[in-house]
Design brief:
heterodimer, A: alpha/beta, Rossmann fold, 2 domains, 9 helices, 33% helix, B: 353 residues, alpha+beta, Heat Shock Protein 90, 5-stranded mixed β-sheet, 7 strands, rod-shaped
């Protein structure tokens, strides 16, 4: 038995999937959710094998919700029109269904399921690609003590590498995100965020001072009164970004 | 602004190289053919050619500033002739002053004067023609660039307009809802399809220039809200109050829908609880007033950064009425966002079609 959760903010859209699933006795619906927060709770609670996920939903998008899920189930995305999402799917070949969903296309997605239940790398690639979309690259969604927080990128002071995580130092405190420095370097606006060091990316608006520490070695002072080291290549980038 | 030929480094270099070799050539000619000393030959060649070059630069700049539309040839002829005479006599005066004791040289100079005038005239004339040609070509490529840019802009605007009219996200989601209704409630599906069709028809005939009556506009808005109501029946409440005396008033048919759409976007799409969207239409001292109220999630507004997307509507209002205060927004303490649109009524309502 495959256990699944439907996540879509429109009841009628869930009805279609429910209706189609009635032909597939091997799949059982364990929960229905109407936004990403509910979806996240339900996934943690039920640990489903498969989810049907809409992209544009209140509060956080389907992509942002999925980023916060630790053991990702197999995902079939359902979306009506989101140019960017569709591009992300096409490059990464995760299964997605365009609304209104065609029955035979739906059955095909279900047929492909057994192989998909094993490997999930493609979903990660979709999430990375989707993070470049205009809505998503001006905010970061994080989870702390079971509470979901939406952080506008302008509120980030700096980012620091921390093992498998990236530590976000923001106006509202410290948060951790399970991503790489390279990922943030790519998705954050390069005119606003500069990677000054292997372990640091800073918000340019936060810079107050750059000082020479030793020969060829610089440090930068942020508004939050924190000194960070600047590498040689980082210094070149920083200078270029500040127009020096 | 057209580029001047002499402002390009490549042309500067070529001209300079040409001028230097020409000076040397003339000097060598004078020295070997007429047997003057090296000093006399060089000074003569240098002064004459320096003045000639200055005259060429002068012609080039003059043509850059001003070119008559008609009588271009005559204009060029007069300038060239005048400059020729001025330079030839200036050169003569200078050289006679420097070499005033060399009778031989002076004699030769007077003898060769006519020849010098002809050479100067030909050089300056050629320079003028080359410059005219240059500016012509510049002008043409510039006009072409402008035309191309204008065409691109027009195309982009047209595309944006179409794109906005069709609202693909809304359209496909609505189609999906209709599709679901055909399975769970076929009768309701039929009603929804006709509503969607009427709404799309209304959308396609909208135009900035076209004023519509409040009655017609509110029917159109109602269709839009009805469709959203089908999609979000479980949590969308709509309250519409239209004062009786406003029904025969008019407003441009492109303004209200985006405002309501904005209210739906922030009030409905970005929140997950049950919400109420309230629209009040009233008239106050001959000014039509539409007030749209929607709740919002304060956290989402902060995350959006840019606030509510009404800038485009403000811009359109300004273009239509030359008044930026017709659209006002306020935020109330209990997370309610209120947009107020004011439309002054035209006295002459014949052009409302």
């Amino acid at each position: 038995m495959i256990r699944t959760i439907l996540i879509d903010d429109e009841p009628l859209a869930r009805d279609i999937v429910k209706h189609y699933l009635s032909d597939h006795q091997e799949i059982e619906i364990v929960a229905e959710c109407s936004d990403g927060f509910e979806g996240l709770k339900a996934i943690t609670l039920h640990k489903p094998d498969l989810i049907f996920l809409d992209i544009q939903m209140p509060k956080i998008s389907g992509f942002e919700m999925l980023e916060l899920v630790e053991d990702k189930p197999a995902v079939i995305f359902t979306t009506a029109f989101d140019e960017f999402a569709i591009k992300a799917f096409e490059v990464n070949a995760v299964d997605y269904l365009l609304k209104p969903i065609d029955k035979s296309r739906f059955d095909l997605a279900i047929q492909k399921l057994p192989t998909r239940l094993q490997q999930n790398e493609n979903t990660e690639a979709v999430l990375d690609a989707a993070a470049l979309s205009p809505v998503q690259n001006n905010r970061v969604v994080v989870k702390k003590d079971g509470v979901i927080k939406i952080i506008p990128v302008v509120d980030i002071n700096y980012l620091e590498a921390d093992d498998d995580y990236v530590k976000l130092s923001t106006v509202e405190g410290i948060f951790y995100k399970n991503k790489t420095m390279a990922f943030f370097e790519q998705t954050l606006d390069p005119s606003q965020f500069i990677r000054i060091h292997r372990s640091y990316i800073i918000n340019l608006a936060q810079v107050t001072k750059i000082e020479l520490k030793e020969k060829d070695s610089y440090v930068v002072l942020l508004k939050s009164d924190i000194w960070l080291p600047v590498s040689k290549t980082g210094y070149v980038k920083l200078k270029a970004a500040l127009g020096l | 602004m057209t580029t001047r030929p002499l402002s390009l480094p490549q042309i500067q270099k070529t001209s300079l190289a040409f001028a230097i070799s020409w000076v040397v050539l003339c000097a060598v000619g004078l020295h070997y053919v007429v047997n003057f000393s090296w000093i006399i030959s060089f000074v003569d060649s240098f002064i004459n050619n320096f003045l000639l070059a200055a005259a060429c630069v002068c012609v080039s700049n003059m043509l850059g500033y001003y070119q008559p539309k008609n009588e271009r040839i005559l204009y060029v002829l007069i300038i060239t002739l005048a400059l020729t005479l001025v330079t030839v006599f200036a050169a003569k005066f200078l050289l006679f002053y420097i070499f005033k004791d060399f009778e031989n040289y002076k004699e030769f100079y007077n003898f060769s004067l006519a020849f010098r005038v002809v050479i100067f005239f030909i050089c300056l004339g050629w320079c003028a023609l080359a410059n005219i040609l240059w500016y012509r070509l510049e002008e043409q490529s510039e006009t072409q660039k402008r035309l191309l840019a204008a065409q691109n802009l027009a195309k982009e605007a047209e595309l944006n307009k179409l794109r906005h009219q069709l609202q693909p996200h809304f359209l496909f989601n609505s189609l999906n809802s209709v599709f679901a209704l055909t399975m769970v409630n076929p009768k309701e599906a039929g009603v929804m399809i006709t509503k969607l069709a009427s709404f799309l028809r209304g959308t396609l005939k909208r135009d900035d220039e076209l004023w519509v009556s409040v009655e017609e506009e509110m029917e159109y808005i109602q269709l839009y809200l009805d469709i959203e109501k089908v999609r979000f029946s479980h949590r969308l409440n709509i309250e519409v109050n239209i004062a009786e005396d406003t029904l025969k008033l008019y407003l441009p048919g492109t303004l209200l829908q985006p405002i309501v759409e904005n209210a739906i976007k922030f009030g409905l799409y970005n929140t997950s609880s049950a919400i109420t969207i309230k629209i009040d239409v009233s008239v106050n001292q001959g000014v039509l007033q539409v007030r749209v109220q929607n709740p919002f999630d304060p956290e989402m507004k902060a995350a959006g950064g840019t606030g509510f997307g009404l800038t485009a509507i403000k811009r359109r209002l300004y273009l239509l009425f030359a008044n930026a205060d017709l659209l006002q927004t306020e935020t109330e303490a209990n997370n309610l966002y209120i947009t107020t649109l004011k439309i002054p009524q035209k006295n002459d309502q014949d052009d409302t079609n």
